[in-house]
Automatic annotation (TrEMBL):
Domain DUF427, residue spans: 1-87
Protein name, as recorded: DUF427 domain-containing protein
Pfam families referenced in this protein's UniProt entry, alphabetically: NTP_transf_9
Lineage, uppermost ranks: Bacteria, Pseudomonadati, Bacteroidota, Cytophagia, Cytophagales
Tree of life domain: Bacteria
Amino acid sequence: MKAIWNDTVIAESNDTIVIEGNHYFPPSAIKDEYFSKTDYHTVCPWKGTASYYTLKVNGEENKDAAWYYPETKEMAKNIENYVAFWKGVEVKE
């Protein structure tokens, strides 16, 4: 699977995990140069507290467009630190 934003592949992996329709990419699959951590957080009742990244690609910014769970609840341990996308990031084969 590939995550693409602003005509650039920002993550790529054959080992994504699909939960609730979102592909979660292993931490090693993301291209760090495009990601910067933000102070934004949300809470999922069964996964835990999500942290977010802003994407910066080709001079453009997509605020809080990727999220991950640095410490998941027990039911979501398989996606701890895995990264998922929204806000116009295209995920495809």
